[in-house]
Amino acid sequence: QHLKTHLIEKIQNPINQGNKKVLIFTAFADTANYLFQELSGLSKDENIHLAKITGSDQSKTTLGTGYDFQKILTFFSPGSKDKDLLYPEENGEIDILIGTDCISEGQNLQDCDYLVNYDIHWNPVRIIQRFGRVDRIGSPNQSIQLVNYWPDISLDEYINLKERVENRMIITDITATGDDNVLSAQANDVSYRKEQLRRLQDEVIELEDL
User: Fold this and answer.
1) Architecture of domain 2-148 in CATH?
2) pTM for the predicted model, two decimal places
3) Buried b (16+ CB within 10 A) or exposed e, 39-71
4) Contact at 8 Å (CB) between 174 and 182?
5) Per-domain boundaries in the chain
6) Where are the beta strands (DSSP E) in 66-172?
7) Using one digit for the tens of pLDDT, what is the confidence trace for 36-45?
8) What angle do CA 159, 6, 62 make, to 5 degrees?
């Protein structure tokens, strides 16, 4: 409900004139499907269109049927994706795109000026990659905003949970290979990531500094 309120505020009061576009990232396909279902009512209420892409199941949009992965991206970012050249006879645009990290690399979605991390990826590099879809040289937007939804548990609890799961996987691998050096390397890596995520949570920083 908080996300829906957040989106309505952005749509009705865009940070760049006339730009209603929002890109929502989640790490999980199930979450993307849930969000699409919960937010689809905005299509009628706010006169916009939504879509979701997960990479693991069929893409969907309130524009209708016949929209595959690339076509959805084109209708979400028509300027950067040359929609007028590719689909000159088709009207309509997608304003809210819900996606997993299948679109976090290699896509220019710079028509969008507002990115939401619905869940914080434990690797800060992934957060930078997500933001790089909209924060690009040549963007038509004067301002670009990044919004992070942090988990209800503390950052230490979140990172430690990830660490425990990964260490169990590593220990299983050590049993098979006899190599225990990976554990110390993993500890150093987790410590670094924890510090970068803490900076993202507590400070206003340039993502290039991470």
Assistant:
1) 3-Layer(aba) Sandwich (3.40)
2) 0.73
3) bbebbeebebbbbbbbeeeebbbbbeeebeeeb
4) yes
5) 2-148, 155-209
6) 96-99, 114-117, 145-148
7) 999 999 999 9
8) 100
